[in-house]
Structure formats: structure tokens, C-alpha cells
Amino acid sequence: MILISAEEIAKHNTYQDCWIIIYDKVYNLSKFLPEHPGGVGVILEQAGKDATLAFSTIHSQEMIHRYLPSDACLGFVDPATSVAETSKAEERRREAIKNRPSLNEILHLYDFKAVASRILTNETWSFYNCAADDEISFRENHYAFLRIWLRPRVMRDVTHIDMSTKILGYYSSFPLYISATALGKLGHPLGEVVLTRAAHSHGITQMIPNFASCSLDEMTIARKDGQIQFFQLYINKNRDISRKVIQDVQEKGYKALVVTVDVPSVGNREKDLRMKYAGAPPGIQNEKDLNRDQGASRVLASFIDPSLNWNVIKWLRSITSMPIVIKGVQTPEDAILAAEYGCNGIVLSNHGGRQLDFAPSAIEVLPNVIEGLKKSGLLGKIEVYIDGGIHRGSDIFKAIALGAKAVGIGRPLLYAMSSYGQAGVEHALQILKDEFEAVMRLSGTNTIADICPNMVDSKSLSNHSLTPKDYLSSNVYDRLVPLRSKL
Amino acid sequence: MILISAEEIAKHNTYQDCWIIIYDKVYNLSKFLPEHPGGVGVILEQAGKDATLAFSTIHSQEMIHRYLPSDACLGFVDPATSVAETSKAEERRREAIKNRPSLNEILHLYDFKAVASRILTNETWSFYNCAADDEISFRENHYAFLRIWLRPRVMRDVTHIDMSTKILGYYSSFPLYISATALGKLGHPLGEVVLTRAAHSHGITQMIPNFASCSLDEMTIARKDGQIQFFQLYINKNRDISRKVIQDVQEKGYKALVVTVDVPSVGNREKDLRMKYAGAPPGIQNEKDLNRDQGASRVLASFIDPSLNWNVIKWLRSITSMPIVIKGVQTPEDAILAAEYGCNGIVLSNHGGRQLDFAPSAIEVLPNVIEGLKKSGLLGKIEVYIDGGIHRGSDIFKAIALGAKAVGIGRPLLYAMSSYGQAGVEHALQILKDEFEAVMRLSGTNTIADICPNMVDSKSLSNHSLTPKDYLSSNVYDRLVPLRSKL
Amino acid sequence: MILISAEEIAKHNTYQDCWIIIYDKVYNLSKFLPEHPGGVGVILEQAGKDATLAFSTIHSQEMIHRYLPSDACLGFVDPATSVAETSKAEERRREAIKNRPSLNEILHLYDFKAVASRILTNETWSFYNCAADDEISFRENHYAFLRIWLRPRVMRDVTHIDMSTKILGYYSSFPLYISATALGKLGHPLGEVVLTRAAHSHGITQMIPNFASCSLDEMTIARKDGQIQFFQLYINKNRDISRKVIQDVQEKGYKALVVTVDVPSVGNREKDLRMKYAGAPPGIQNEKDLNRDQGASRVLASFIDPSLNWNVIKWLRSITSMPIVIKGVQTPEDAILAAEYGCNGIVLSNHGGRQLDFAPSAIEVLPNVIEGLKKSGLLGKIEVYIDGGIHRGSDIFKAIALGAKAVGIGRPLLYAMSSYGQAGVEHALQILKDEFEAVMRLSGTNTIADICPNMVDSKSLSNHSLTPKDYLSSNVYDRLVPLRSKL
Amino acid sequence: MILISAEEIAKHNTYQDCWIIIYDKVYNLSKFLPEHPGGVGVILEQAGKDATLAFSTIHSQEMIHRYLPSDACLGFVDPATSVAETSKAEERRREAIKNRPSLNEILHLYDFKAVASRILTNETWSFYNCAADDEISFRENHYAFLRIWLRPRVMRDVTHIDMSTKILGYYSSFPLYISATALGKLGHPLGEVVLTRAAHSHGITQMIPNFASCSLDEMTIARKDGQIQFFQLYINKNRDISRKVIQDVQEKGYKALVVTVDVPSVGNREKDLRMKYAGAPPGIQNEKDLNRDQGASRVLASFIDPSLNWNVIKWLRSITSMPIVIKGVQTPEDAILAAEYGCNGIVLSNHGGRQLDFAPSAIEVLPNVIEGLKKSGLLGKIEVYIDGGIHRGSDIFKAIALGAKAVGIGRPLLYAMSSYGQAGVEHALQILKDEFEAVMRLSGTNTIADICPNMVDSKSLSNHSLTPKDYLSSNVYDRLVPLRSKL
To answer: Name one GO cellular component term (chains A, B, C, D) (predicted).
Structure first.
């Protein structure tokens, strides 16, 4: 066993020659550096130092063995010389947390996002907040709700409001579930289990992500008695791997399988890709040193099967008794197919605008899907959920009025979690509940069943004469100016 | 009787230990402080001092006994030592008034609002100016008018213009009334009676607010011979209280009862809620010290009955002979119900956008309501008024053309009152009158009856492809930027 | 005859005590000062000095006798002591002219406006550039053209383009005439005759304004052989005055009478009104010193007859043989009436947005008018012109395609004249001609007759979902902001 | 042979007296200076110096003889004294290139444009980037794509994506060709052959511009085996010249003749025109020194035949066997005529918005053209391409879905070439390919044939209620502001 002194390690702190300490072992990352999905910068910041804290925040220990060749490990740090150090990024994060507003001052989900934008590292912020291409669909997801107006009824006894509903037969305190989002530990050291606990506090369902930072066991253990969890899955090119996961999940008590079908390849998320170059030193501007086609998102998705098709439903039925939900449907045609193939539910979703820019918002697709199912005599055979753009109680109300059984919410809760932990997520859910209850009361609706289509005015929903602003194109446009007098 | 020296009182000037003087008595507000609907800041500013002036501007004396426990009163200030002091906020207000523009320079209602924004305290400005959630409906109320165009006729003798009309049979010099708005003394020491006097000068009706700062007697006494006042009422959970108010009001000569039906719970007015934290010292950032769910608006509304329904009309008819107007109708369906239940009038209103965000503007609902009443054979059985967004004479003209009997105006007059008192309100009304007369003359209409639907072009009124900008969401969006050359 | 020394006069230079010299006479303007339509400031700038230059730029000499009481004249300035002085405003103007761009650099009509905005005094700029209320119609006049697209045809021989047309039977080198605009001497010392000369150079018709700065004789004398002038008239309350003007005009060879019918009262032009207060000293902020309801526009229009109606056509026919054109028609209904009453032409116009805000643009009204005349069998019985918003050759093309015989242009030529005199106006007209010819050539149209309705796409013309921005309301709106971390 | 010393030449460095050295000869440009299409400034910068480098970057040597009279040449520079000098502009350009981002950091076509805007000289940037009048059509070309949304299908096997297609029967690796753009050497010293080489690398067709900086031979030689080139032609007033070019082109192996038909006269490109004055010294502000009506674009186009009409097709058929494509069609009517006249293809194009402002975007015209051809039974008889506004793979997908056979791209590749040479163009094409493949995969389409009309939602495509912003008019508008308190 080789012992290496902290002083020696500290000398290897450049792009060409980069050593770091993780869990007391010393690694030479010089070759791995340009391949790191999270960018060069975050590693160089740790070059020659103990990176255990920064590493463990994001990765499980087994990642080392999966990605590094065995000869990358040079030996152990000499305990007599080692000094664990807090990274500058971590210091900055802690300072931002210390100066965050009081949780009680947070009035809406935008506050959480604004606070999180200062607390998260640039890398995490870019990964969570990015979307595809010009991020038109990302913003359209929100703007589409702005084109729907309410039709409030008055003079109805609204003393008692019952917001509860059932999702695949399971009780939900209001028609919202926590959607699957990847890499929770980037935002909070405890990762997805924070969401598990908050979901229980509020009596709602959590959809566990395939790309969780926490292990399946951690998330299963965090579940309380009677609490409902669904499991979101990407189908692997190697079906055996998927089969094992599905059987494991069923045994561990997950109540439904949610198959994401809109990632045959990963979307072009440019904020995320930019990060790769953010910390690169000037010396490596050479065109061969770094290569395109990466970023955190791409690495994650490399095993997903692009040949996925409707036949997979039969196969799934053959290996599991869990209800099957298809996530990523975007047309009435596919909604009808899903119903015909016997799926139990569909999530209308454009993946938060992260996959295909100009994919329509789920809320715009929703009434067409309901209409399509109705015409095909399939309405009621399949539950329809939507996600994307939900920020206010009125958004939930609009979705229910147009035919959704429930809505999913993802990123806003990551921001709440990153800024205030479990208390933040619970506060965020409470805000949504309060807002939704208020809209129900002020609209004169006592139960979910009362929220029918004529409670909203969606005549302008499909009017796309105004699109979310395209910042790239306007940024490079030179505006015409008239002449003024000289000097 | 305990006498306490001003010097002693002055020592108790912190969040934990806060005494103030009101009407010569000394109160310990340490416990009450976090509960104060108007926020912590305004009280701390007075801590250890004589707060009589600041208090009396907003509250009637009886409020002390209603909200403070009897042991909060510690005794009397020793008159030998007391020194009344003008608060800094009051000094700032007076300075702003001294520097306001000449009243003759005020050309339109926006000038009043701009001037008032500097004169009012932050708390009052936030309370008057706030609206629900993203304030979409608040601004839509104005923008909807921008989507209506005029169809002016020429070559008509317009030497004589008669703007007068009747509201519930009572003469009005032009088709506008002063709508009910709460807490007038926040804006002007004399409160609502300023509006009463200006209404008389202009020969129009005033709708007295249930939440007036002035007492009913004050407002009744301020009424001149032949002057018309309506009374706006929130129905109390305790019907006996409402009955007494109604009978009192009828005896005192009010000519109509206007029942507000759109407040089963209070809207989520975030500017108002923010104020609660504005003056809080850093030491109390702890999450339990302050609690959400308050703000001036919420406290006011706690007694309103959420079980209110159409049966209340029969009960009202049984205890009063006053005409009954329902304020807050927002759909043709409810307009028809109001007519069928025998109401004398309805106010189409979304409560100035302060209740339910995305509730439609009254002006957009108006033509649908008229159409609905016509189809049901009820047109003419009930008078239809609208409020919300009226700022120009052309707005009044558009409302009349689309079928309104009259329009209500609220906040703009508060701004005029706050900035210039009664002269300000009279000037504001004169501007509206002049503008309305000009629109009538330039449109070739001599009387209110001439202002028929084909005097306007409202084809684009219901086109919602462009919504008022959602500032919160765009504020937290990171715009994409293309690369430029480095350095 | 009293002689007063320049030194003595110089002492009377305050708001309370204000003497000035005009054409060697000394006037006490102390009483007149607050009544001056052009504002207090411009006079105070001259107080105690010789104001002849400033006065004569704008007014004819007879104005003195019309507006000042005879006792305002105190005597003559003692020639031994008088010193004529150039005003500071005039110096500023000359400096701006010296620094204007070369005329050849002016590429479009916006350049002229930008240059003029620096050269004109604030008072003149405000008067020329102002419009009614929120200036929505003013800007809509331009924006409406942006909603019309072209349908260019290719592979047509466009070697020869003939842009000429006839207006009331008179040759015009292209389908544009100079419209009537008031007070030309505010922009250029020679006033309207500058336009007369440029009209001749380009072979187009000039519409002489009733409110010209130049006398009728000056403008008549400036006319060259064969040059066509129309006369624009406001009908006086006293018909005898109008009769005399009409007969005078006919004798002097004007070829048509254009009766403006959209000014029964003057529009609310707030930029113009603001000017009244611009120069007022702080000492007179008192609310009674200055009164509303004035500004240059209002004084001019006081004699116009608000009782004007269609009967006037018969009367006009009885006293003149000139063709009669009605200017200010804004609906198909009135266009049909004009044709039925035997008028020879109509100008669709909202008076440049200066009269009634939210009056539609002429270009939007145009296709409806053509349709209305067609349905009534009156198409071809009356010529239809439009004005308002014309800035580009493509605007002219669009108007012709939608049925206009010609378009009028006003303010843009005032800006050209104010900045560069006659050469400027000729350059402006040449730009329009070049642009119009280019559009004809690139659209594949050889003659005016080829410019038919299917050369344009006007499907979105009446879509008013996007209105010109309402700056007043957005200026006083406090935008919502999410919380950020403190400090 | 006259020898002139560098010292002597250096003295002639003013507007009135301007000598320069090109290829060792000395020219007196004093008379030519005001006529220079590229502006006075670029020449004055070289006055008295050796301009060979600057000249040769843009012009071929024969230009000297074509444009300068023979007596302009004064003799040879005395080699003993001459010193070649790098121009300041060239130094600036090299500095910008040194500081450009790494090519791998370039994520989309906007990055290239942003980088190029700093590298190109002002003159070149203005020439490349300019468009007609208010540049509405220029930007609309891009914005129109924003009004088209996608309808992605899921659960389809998209392992294999085949993007290849045929254009006029020739293989293309994806449905895009490099369109013809003038004066490539302004952007890169090697000019159009850079594009030829990149086209080969990517297996796509290049359309060679009539106004290339490179000679036909250079571009022919650069062609690799099997590589496809089309030739774009402006028909000369002198048909003999055109005939020779066509025969030459056919012999040299060009595969199709693309006749541009939308330039009977050159568009009014104001950014380009402005450049003429950019370097002019203050001394020549006199109105006669410079004249309008020029700029780089106008000089180029002076020989184009404005009498061009459909008869030309028969003549072309008589002299060439190449397929004939008409470029610049903008209506279904002309598309039908082109098919009837037997053309093999049409390019729907508004010439990048550089010809006629308010000409519609090709993408908006496309579905109407397809519909028109279908109704006339001509669909399939003629290939339809579009150009203008293509920046993303999704733009290509939308065009194909609406019926285009392929799309052309011009300026974005000039920016890539100017910033990074051939590697830049190849990277740009790779980005487009990657993006297009991703859209195909994420939409569930395996081949070009799968991209049918119902893969997109183009309902809002023709909704023009929102037009690209008109910067000139808004720049000269004085916004209304409400009064605030004074001081």
C-alpha cells in the first residue's frame, strides 16, 4: 500500500496533471478530465485537494469504479499529512443559504426558484434549469396556462371544499403528484428521500425517478405506512436489466410503473452543454481537446432503448401486475393507441421542454386528447395526467377542468428542496394546496367533480400568434436606428 | 392610576420589548407585534414613542379595545414628560405633498396614481395597489378596453350633449358612480366623507363601503340634500349583525343595498402580504416568529360568510324594501340567476383583480351577459353595471355601448383623494366627464341612448393571445445568449 | 407717443410684471401671460426683451390686435436704446441645424423625424407630434400597415413603371398629395409656401390648410402655372365668414374644397397641454393661476361649428362650383351618406390620431368602405382617399391595392421642411416616389390599375389582439418581483 | 514608365486628392471616390498607402480596368521606397479571430453569427446582414417558423434514421443545400470554394452564385468527383452574355440552372447604404458631394434585365439541357405558371428579406403553393424548395412537413466561414444535421417520407397580428409619461 503525502498531491493541480483525493484514496484524473460530464471546471477546482465532500454530494461511491480504470488509483493519502478542505463552491453555497429569506416570506413557487438560483452551483442550476434548443417549449409550458381564463360562479355555499381525488385508485389529498426528476443530490445532500418525506406529510403520491441519486432501498425505506410511490422507468436496451428492475420495484411495494417514452435520444440542452466549457483553462481552447455531444444529460441517457415501441406493453404485462402508465404522450393519436394497448394511464408531457423544442405544452394537448378519447369511445378507460409549467393553484384547476385526473410537478420542488430542505418542499406543497383551494372556493366549486370544462375559457389556448421570445435570434439582430444630429 | 415617564417608555423600543403611547395611554405591544395585520415595521417605527397620530390616521379608537387584551394597557404617560412626535413616515408624506405638481397640471387619472405612489406610505400603497397572484386580472381589466375600438360618426349636430342617466331610477349627471373601497383614512385623514362631498359636487352616486374608515354616521351626515348613497355590504356569518346593519342603513336614507358576493375567502394579494415582513428586524428571521396567511386584507374579511347562496335574496327581501344589487357577478349564467331571483341590478366585477387571478374583466363579460339576458327574455328586467379598469372617458363610452347602465370607479379616486383631497377627487371626476363628453361629441352621439353597440368594434375583445406580462416567471428566467468573442 | 428705454423695459421681466417689445412697440403682457396658448415659458424667455423675431416666426402681425386689449400697448421702445436679440431657443435651433446630417444621408422619413426632433423647439415639437389621449390611434395608424403583407408577382416585364394617376380629374405624378397641416411657420420661417414649391417640383397636389401660417395670397402667389391646389376648410359657426372664404378661394383658382368634419371639438392632446406648464415658475404652482382646457390646438379651433351636418352639402353646392371632398369619414355608413349627398370625394382619416383616441386607422376602415359602397351600388361615384400613418412606399401601395385613389401625407413633410427647407421636402417626396416605384416593380405591377386587391394579404388587418403599448398605465404599474437572497 | 516614391504618394491622402497603390501601380482615385459602392471610408483609410491587401480581399484584379479610366493610373510605385502595410481594419479582424471561442463551444448557428459580427469589418457585416427597408420580411422569415409547432409521435422504433433525399434526382445526405450568396471573399480570403469543400464533406449540393468572388474555374476545380453543383444566374439585359455563361456552365458540369427572378431592381438595403457615409469626412457634408442610390448591392445588379418574363423559359430550353429552377417565386399563382411552363423546380424565397419588405416568408407561402399545385393537378410535376430563416433542424423538419423537397441556407454559412473557415462551415452543417436527426427521432419519423403534414401544427402560421418590431418608428416615438412629484 502506497502512502502519498498531501504536499505531494498538492503539486498535481493542473489540467495536464490532475490528482485528487476521494475517500482517502488518491486518483490521477488527467485522462478522465475532458470526459467528465459535469465539466472540467468542478474537478479542477479540487485538483491537488481532498474532493470527498464535493464528490459525495453528487455521486454514490460505486461511480468511481464504474468510470475510472483501476490504474487511476495511485494509493492512499498519508493520513499524517491530509487536510480535508471545504471547496469554495460549497462555501459560497453555505453563505447563500445563510442569507436566504425566511421560509415564511416565500409566497409562491417563483420565490423558491429565485432563491435556489443563488444557492445552487452554476453546474446544478444549469442542469436543473436547462431545456432544449431555444427553450420555447419550456416557457410555452407556462405561457399556455396564461391563455386560459376562469369562469367563476358566485352565490354557492363554499364553506366546505373537498380537494381529494384518486390516482389509479389511490387516495390523494389534492390532484397533484411529485413527478420524477433526476439527480436530487445535486440540490440537497439527502436527495430524493426529502421529497418522499414531504409527499407523506401532504398525503400525495411520489413518482420515483429512474435516475435518482438515492438508491432504491433508501427511497423504499423512507416510505411511511400506507404511503404511495410509483416508479418511473427508462426501458434499457438490455431487457434483462429492465426486467430485474421492474420485479425488484414490484416486490418493494411500488404501486405503478411509469414508462417514459419520449427519450429515444436526449434533447439538445445548451445551458447544460455550455457548462462543460465553463471551467476550462485558456490553454485548452484547441479544437480537439474537448468534444461536443456531452453534458450531464447525455451521459445519463446512453442506455435508453431507441427501438421502443407499442409491443413493449405486452412484454411488460407478462412480467408485472403493476398498472402501467406511459409518460411522454403528446398527441391524441398516441393517447388512443395507449388506451387500445390497455395502458392504465398516460402522462401528457413534453418532458419539461427538455427534449424536443416546439413540442406543444401538455395543457394545450389535453383537450384534444380528451376529445379524441371521447370520439373513440375510450374516455374513462384510461387516466390522463399532465405535467409541465404548473406553478399556481389556478394551473391545477385549469388542468382538471380540461379533463386531467391529476398534474405532476417536478423542478419547482427541486428548487424548494435545494433552498430549504424538507420544510421547503412542504411549504411549496402547502402554497399550491392553499392556492388551489382558494381557486375552488372563489370559483364556486366544492369538489373535484365540480371542476368541469365550462369553468374555464380556453378559446385562445391554441392561438400561437405570440410565441415565447427567441432570445438568441434577437440578441444577434442589429436594430435599425434613424439618424440624429451629429455630436 | 399609574403614570409612566416618557423617558421610561422610550427605553422599551425593541421587537422583544415594545411600548407605545396612544391617546395618552401606554400599551405594551410585545405580544401583539407579530400579529399586526399592517406589519411589524410600522409599529416598531413608533416603539417607545407617542403613536397617536399614526394610529388615528388609520383606526378608530375602539380598535384598541377590540384587538388588545386589557392588560396590555400599562397606565398613562406622565403628562409632565410626554412629547408628541411626528413620525418619519408622516414627515416624508408631508414633504411629498409639498412637492406634488399643481392640481391644474394633472391631465389624466394616471397622473394622480403617479403622484399618489410617492405620497402614500409603502403600506398603504401596497394595500390600495395590490391584486391577486400575478395580477393578471388586475391589468387585464385595463387592457381589455384597449381591444375595443370606436366607430365615430360625423356630420351630426353635436352642439348639445346630454350625458345624464338614471341609476335605479335616480338621476346621475353622467353614467358613473363612486364604487366602494375599504380604509379611506389610509389615504386621507378625513376618509370616505371626502368622496361623499365630491360625489355631491358632481351629481353622482356614491356606493358606501362596508369597510369604511369613517363611521356610518359620519358618512350619513356628510350627505347633502337629495344626494344619493348606496350601501355596499358583506353578509356576516351572523345574520343578526347583517340584519341590524341593513335596517340601520335603510333608516338612514341609503337608496340601495349592494351585496358583494365574490369574497367567500380573501384573494391572495402578495404585495400586501409582503408588507408584513418589510419592517421586521433581521433577528426574527426564524421561521416560527411570523406567520403567513395575514396582511391587511385577510383580517378585514374574517367574518364574511362563505356559505352565501341565492336563498339570501329572499331573506333580504323579507327585511328591507331597498333595491338589491349583486356585486361580483362574472358569468351570464349568474346574471340570469340574479334576474330570476328578482335582483334589481348586478355589478359585473372581478373585484379589481384582487380576488381571483384569471377571472375575466367585466368589460369582456358584459356583451355575453347582455346576450344571455336577451336570450332568456330578461333584458331590461335588471340593470347591469361594471367596474374595473376604467381610466378614460372612452372606457365609459365603450361600457355603455356594450350594454352597461353605468360604471363604477374606485382606486383612481383614492389616489386623487390621497394626493389632493376633495379638490383632487372633483378634478378627477371633471377629467372623466370632459373626456366622456368629448368622446360622445366626436362620436356623433348626443345622448346616452345614442351610444349603441355599433358605435364600437369589439371583435378582438375576447382574443387572449396576448396576456398581461407575467413578471415573476420572466424575472426568474435566465435568457439564452449566444457566444461573443472572449474578452 | 411715449418712448420707453430698453433699460426700463429690461426691468419688467417677471411673471407678475412682464413687458416685451414686438415690432418696436412695448406691451405689458402681465395679464395675458397665463392665457397664452403656447405656454408661459416661451413668453417669459422674452420678458424685458425684443421678441419680434420669436413672435413673427409664428404669428401674423394682426394677432396682436385680435388678442391683446388696446391698453396693453405702453408705447414705443426708444430707438436710441433698443437692441434686438436672438433668443436662446433660436440659437439652439441654429446650432442643431448646423449639426444636422447631410441631406443625402437621409434614407427614409424616420430620419427626417429624428433630425427634426432636435431642431424644433419643445413647443413646436409637442404641437406637431402630439395626438389624443394615450396616442393609441396615432400609432395604430402606422401599425395597421404592418399587418398587411404583399403578394409580389414575378416574371413580368417591369422595365417601364407608370405611377401617375388622376385626383378629381387632375394629373398627379404618383398617388399622393400633401395634406393640410396647421402652423407651418413654427417649423420654417417661410411656412406653407415651402410645401407649395416642393409640390410643384414633384407634380403633385397640395391641400392648403385653413390654419396656415401664410396668408391665402402668399400661397396663391407661390403656385406655378398649371399647379393644382385644393383648399381645406373648417366651417365657421358664422356661415357668412365661410361663404366669403369659399368664394375667395374659388376665385383664386383652388380646384377643390375639402371640408374637415371631424373637429366638432378639439381632441385632448396632452403633450401639447403639458407645454403650457413647462416654463411656469415655481411661484405660480397655486391652483388658480393657470387653467386647463387650453394649448395651441384649442385656441385655434374655437370658431368651428359643432352643429355641422349633412345639410351643409346643399348649402355648399349653392355657393360654389368646386368639387366637394369630406375629410374625416371613419365608417362605411358615413361614406355611403357622403356619396348619396353627392360629394365628389371623401378622405378616410382619424386626423392623425389627434382627435379621438381609439378611432380606427383609415387603412383598416378602407376595405370596409369599398365593400359598403359596392353593396350600395355607389362604388365609382365618389373618390376615396386616406391619410394617417403613411411612411413608406409600401404603405402607398397597400392603400391603393385596398381601393384608395390616393393618400395624403402631412406631418412627415413638416419634419422634412423644418430640418432642410424646400430641398428637404423634395428629398422626402423623392424617397417616397423611389420606394413606391420599387414596390410596384418588385410586385410586378406596371400601372396604378395593376395594383388590385389580390396584390396584398390583409387577412390580419382587423386583428386587434395587440394594441399599441399604453405607456401611461405601464409606467405607473409596480412590477411584481420574486425574493432574492438578502444582501 | 513613371516611378513614384512612397513619400510622394503619402502626401495625397485626402478626399480631394487621393492616391493609392494596388499591385504596385499608383492610382489617382480623387474622381472615383464618391462613386465607390463600398463607401468613401474604406478607400480614405488607404489613401496615400498600399491598398493591395484590402483590395484583393474583395475584388478580382480585372475590376480595376472595368471601373477606372485608363488615365487614373499614374505610374508605378518606386520599389525602393514602397512599404506594404497591414490595414488597421485587418489588424482588428485578426485580433478578433485570435479571441474567438473554440469551435467546439459553438452550439448553434446564432453563435456563429455572434462571433462573425465581431470579426467582419463594418462594411462586410452591413452588406451580409442588411435587408430591405424596415427589415420586417428579413426577421419574419425566422419568426414564421416560431408559429409552427410540432406533433411528435412516440413508441416508434427510431434506432435507424435515414435523412437522405434526392434533389432533381441527385443524392443529398439530408434535405438541405447551400444557397447562392454574393461576394464570399469579403468574409474569407478563399471565398466560395470554402463552401464547395464543406458541401462535399457533407454530401450536399452547392448552388454557385452568379456574383461569386471566386471565378467559375476556381469553383469548378474545387469540385470533387461526383459532387453536385447548381449554378444560380441573373439574366443579363444582353442575352448573348447570358447564353455564353449558360453554355460555359453546362460544359463545366453544373447540374442545374437556377434563375433568380426577384431582382428586376435591387432592394432598398439601408444598412448597406449607410456604409457609404460612414467614413466620409465632415468637410464633405455638402449635399452635392455624395449621392444616394448606391451601395454595394446596387452596383452589382445594374446589368440585370427588368423585362424578364415567362418567355425566357422557352429560350433557356433552346440553349441548355440542364434542369431549370426558378428562384424567387412568392405566390401560388406563379408556382402554377412555373409548372405550366415546364420548369423543373421553384425556390420559394423573398431573397432573405433583401428585396421587397413585407414580402411573405417562404415557409408561409409553402402550404398555399402546395395546395395550389394540388388543385391544378400539378403537384409532383415540379420540385418545391424554400429558403430564408432556416437556423435549426426543426426549421428543416417544418419545411419538409409542409411540402418542401429541400431547404436552402445562405448567410448562416457565410458567418461560419468568416469566423472559422472550412472547419466552421462543416461544423455548422454538422449542427444542422444533428439537430434535424434529433427532431426526426424525437418525432418518431424514420425517413423523409414520414415527415408528413400532420407532423406539424401550422394553424397559427398566417396569423400576423404580431409583426416583427418596427424599430425606426418606435425609436422616434416620444413615450407619454405621467407626472411625478417635482424634485
So the answer is: mitochondrial intermembrane space
Residue B69 pLDDT level (bands cut at 50, 70, 90): confident
Name which of B83, B81, B9, B14 is nearest B45 in CA terms: B14
**Model confidence band, residue B276 (pLDDT cutoffs 50, 70, 90):** low
Contacts of C475 in chain D (CB under 8 A): 480-482
Distance from CA of A4 to the nearest CA of C (A): 42
CA distance D227 to D192: 15
Cβ <8 Å between A438 and B265: yes
- Alpha-carbon distance values, A376 to A337, A379, A385, C140 (Å): 10, 8, 19, 47
Q: Among all chains, which residue has been given the C-alpha cell 358605435?
A: B455
Q: Is the separation of the CB atoms in D32 and D67 below 8 Å?
A: yes
Rounded Cα–Cα distance for residues B364 and B383 (Å) = 17
Q: Which residues lie closer than 8 Å to C404 by C-beta, 6 or more apart?
A: C175, C348, C366, C384, C385, C386
- Spatial separation of the C-alpha atoms in residues A242 and A238, rounded to whole Å: 7
Domains of chain A: 3-77 (3.10.120.10), 116-265+301-463 (3.20.20.70)
Query: What is the pairing mode between strands D176-178 and D406-409?
Result: parallel
Q: Alpha-carbon torsion C36, C38, C43, C44, what sign?
A: positive
Each residue's pLDDT tens digit, C432-485: 999 999 999 999 999 999 999 999 999 999 999 887 888 888 888 888 888 776
Task: Give the CA distances from residue D390 to residues A344, A464, D44, D184, D396, in Å, rounded to whole numbers and listed in that order.
Answer: 41, 20, 38, 19, 7
**How far is residue B303 from each of residues A156, A161, A279, B236, measured CA to CA in Å?**
17, 18, 59, 6
Model confidence pLDDT, tens digit, residues C304-319: 899 999 999 999 999 9
Output the CA–CA distances (angstroms, integers) from residue D213 to B287, D303, D304, in the order listed: 71, 17, 18
- Helix C270-278 with C122-129: angle, nearest 10 deg: 160
Condensed to tens digits (0 to 9), the pLDDT of residues D171-215 reads 999 999 999 998 888 888 889 999 999 999 999 999 999 988 888
> Per residue in D425-455, pLDDT tens?
999 999 999 999 999 999 999 999 999 999 9
Angle CA(C20)–CA(C25)–CA(C26) in degrees, nearest 5? 35
| Tally: H helices and E strands in chain C | 19, 16
> Who contacts B324 (Cβ-Cβ below 8 Å, separation ≥6)?
B256, B257, B259, B313, B316, B317, B342, B343, B344, B345
Q: How far is CA A392 from the centre of its chain?
A: 18
Q: What is the pLDDT of residue C373?
A: 98
Helix, strand or coil, per DSSP, at residue B446:
coil
From C281, which residue of chain B is nearest by alpha-carbon distance?
B102
The 10 Å Cβ neighbour count of residue B276 is 26
Three-class DSSP category at A27:
strand
* CA atoms B236, B239, B241, B244: torsion sign: positive
Question: What single-letter DSSP state applies at residue C322?
Answer: S
| Cβ atoms of residues A258 and A325 within 8 Å | yes
Tens-place pLDDT, residues A91-140: 787 888 888 999 989 999 999 999 999 899 888 888 899 999 999 999 99
CA-CA distance, C148 to B177, in Å (whole number)? 42
pLDDT at C215: 87
pTM over 0.95: no
Euclidean distance between CA atoms A364 and A357, whole angstroms: 15
The catalytic residue among D27, D128, D177, D234 is D234
Answer whether C230's CB lies under 8 Å from C212's CB: no
Query: Mean of the per-residue pLDDT values for chain D?
Result: 88
**Residue B485 near chain A (CB below 8 Å):** no
Longest dimension (CA), chain B: 80
C133 is catalytic: no
Any catalytic annotation for residue B262? Answer: yes
Q: Is the Cβ of D423 closer than 8 Å to some Cβ of chain A? A: yes
